[in-house]
Amino acid sequence: MSRLPRLHSSPDRPVAGPSMVSTMTSLKRKAITEDDEEAMDQPKKLPAIGRGHQSRPLQPTRNATNLTTSRLNGTTSRPLTRPQAPNLTTSRTTRGTSAPPTSSSSRSLYSSTRQPAKAPTTRKDLPIRTASGPTRCISEDDKKIQAIANKVESWQSMHGNKLAGLEADMAAERSKVADLEANHNFLRKQLEDAKTQELLKQRELSNVSDEIEALKKRHARELKDLEFDLKREVTAAKDELANMKSRHARELMDLEMDVKKREREIQQLQEDLRLCRGDLERERETVSTLKSTISHQSNARIALGTENHALQSQKTALQTELDMYLATISSLNLKLEASQKEIDALKHETMEAETARRKLHNMVQELKGNIRVFCRVRPVLPSDLPSPETPPDSSSSGFDLAERLKEEMRANIAFPDRLDHKEIVVASSSESATGQERKEVYNFNFDRVFEPESSQAEVFEEISLLAQSCTDGYNVCVFAYGQTGSGKSFTMEGGPTATSSGMIPRAVEQVFQVAEELKRKGWEYKMEGQFLEIYNETINDLLGKGEFDKKKHEIKHDPKTNSTRVTDANVVPLHSPTQVRSLLAVAQSRRSVAATLMNERSSRSHSVFTLRISGHNVNTGERSEGSLNLVDLAGSERLNASGTAADKDRLKETQSINRSLSALGDVIAALGEKGEKGDKHIPYRNSKLTYLLQNSLSGNSKTLMILNLSPLAAHLNESLTSLRFATKVNNTTIGTAKKQVRTS
Ligand SMILES: Nc1ncnc2c1ncn2[C@@H]1O[C@H](COP(=O)(O)OP(=O)(O)OP(=O)(O)O)[C@@H](O)[C@H]1O
Predict the structure, then answer these.
(1) Which residues bind ATP (predicted)?
(2) CATH superfamily of 369-378+444-743
(3) Which of 597 and 194 is assigned the larger pLDDT?
């Protein structure tokens, strides 16, 4: 299609010959064929477009060519395909091989078409323009030239005719060409119209195809939407179907279960029915039995009616008796009430008697003098036995051997006073200078003597009144004296169990108990504790921080209140016996203990536990200040006996202990002498121990010394020394104890 307009777009070009026309025709044919081919590619609407121009089909060129050809054939004998015209036309444009024309028309044609420079190239000896140039006088040549000129002239005249015919032909051809051009223009116009229409149709077609495309897209979208909706609906339908299936399955299961349940119920009912039938049978049998029983019973009832009558009369008699008893009970109740009142009065009396008894006890103590001495002998312990080469077996022979050994080791100590337990007799045998055995027997009397079998409770029973008197406002001092390993610590502190607990925990418990009881009488008590150790004449606070506190403690006495204070020593408020027990445990772990030959756990220091108790009677306004000092003295053995002479530190310890113990003896002796002389100086300051216990050792306080003795024969001499010291103390009267009581 695009080639066709280009062919017809140059109307000014020289008209082509038949070959050109045929070429054009073939080109047109080709173009039309291509058009047809292209038309084949167009949408199917295109034939409809062409149908509107059927009267002028799109193949006019082919018809026009045919027409032209037929016309040419009809008007002249010379067909257009003759060679002359093309040669002429060609010579006009490109070739100049023909001879020059002689006529003016041919000359002019020649001169207008041929270049003069090219003519001599064919014939060199002939001038081209012989007629107009200078004439050479060569006669032969002139003749020949004349002949040629004649020939040319005849040729020209002959061809002039031909030329005229050709010009006529040319004119005819020109008119044909004009026709063809007109036809061509018409066709071109038709073609342009067709193109315009085609463009319109193409535009329409593109619009339509756009619409189709849009429709396709919309259709695809709608299709997609529909597919999506459909899928969703299908999914929903599937879900619903699944739900329905599961619901249906559940319902089916429920129904099956229901059916099974019903079946079970039916079975149960059938079983019940069977049982009921059995029961009914049995009941029927029972009814028949009962009927016979009833007949028996009615007979028995008659008999019972008679019996009942008799019992009624018996009941009346018993009722009378019961009334009598009730009267007796009410009179007994009255008597009980009277007795209860009597008991209360007696209790009150007892309490008053207890108070009076305590007063009397104190009076007795005062009359007896304020230092009392108890003596306690510990049992022989397995640890006292020499360690055997072979370990003892648990057989009876092993036990007997141990007992025999104990017996052998035991000193000859007797307790003849079985009633009052106040006497101890020690027998010793020694060799005289003459080699004879000398037997000596020593009798000692104390306030109380405890045999090896005596328990802690028995010992405490004797000192409990003394201990609790601190609640009445007395200064009380209990100290344990004896050689190392004699049982001082055991007596004062005791063991871990309730039965083995010593005097300190028992005394504290007692004081708390008494304080609680005295609350009813309006007494309120405040208690505080202090635990000190005197080691090598240095005071160590056992309730302080660390094993040895670095502080230098000083002892201060207040003569007004007869109280003693130690500077920088911890005084802990006491609230319960349990708290006191834990305090004692802490203190015990801090005590300095050094090993000696005599006792592995020998305590090489004095320990002083002080319980201060201040009371206030809210009813009477009375106030009391008392203290309880519980002293565990260091071992009293002599220097050689302990085997410490070789050890410098142990020697110093022992010397210090012995010095303080002899100072204690000196103080007690001086107190005894003071009682006689009145103005005797008491050397309290000779040791830290006596200075600390000044207020508890003076005549205003109650003092108890517990002498602990070893039962071993090996320790007999030490025991005798201790017994003599205790006797001295016991014989000392140091005055009358005074209550620290004032009325506010
Ligand atoms: N009455 C007793 N009953 C049973 N065992 C006792 C008794 N008295 C003391 N003992 C035991 O004897 C050993 C020595 O006693 P304890 O340590 O009390 O002696 P001590 O005089 O305090 O010695 P130290 O001066 O070295 O402190 C301990 O094992 C103790 O348990």
Answers:
(1) 482-489
(2) Kinesin motor domain (3.40.850.10)
(3) 194
Is the pLDDT at 177 greater than 90, yes or no? no
pLDDT at 72: 39
Computed on alpha carbons and rounded to an integer, the radius of gyration of the chain in Å comes to 81
pTM beyond 0.90: no
Domain residue spans in the chain? 1-93+153-291, 369-378+444-743
What is the distance in angstroms between the CA of the first residue and the CA of the last residue of the chain? 146
Average pLDDT over residues 660-685: 78
- Phi-psi category of residue 9: left, alpha or beta, with phi > 0 → left and psi -120 to 50 → alpha: alpha
Distance of alpha carbon 321 from the chain centroid: 80
Show the tokens assigned to 639. 């220097």
Could you tell me if the CB of 486 is within 6 A of ligand 1? yes
Is ligand 1 within 6 A of the CB of residue 96? no
**CA–CA dist 70, 67 (Å, integer):** 5
486 is in an annotated binding site: yes
Rounded mean pLDDT of 316-335? 93
pLDDT attached to residue 739: 62
The DSSP call for residue 383 is G
Question: Is 708 touching ligand 1 by the criterion CB < 6 Å?
Answer: yes
Which residue, chain included where needed, has tokens 């220097």? 639
Ligand 1 atom at minimum distance from 598 CA: 26
Secondary structure of residue 371 in the 3-state scheme: strand
Neighbours of 589 (CB within 10 A): 10
Q: How many CB atoms neighbour CB 148 within 10 A?
A: 15
Q: How far apart are CA 464 and CA 474, in angstroms?
A: 14
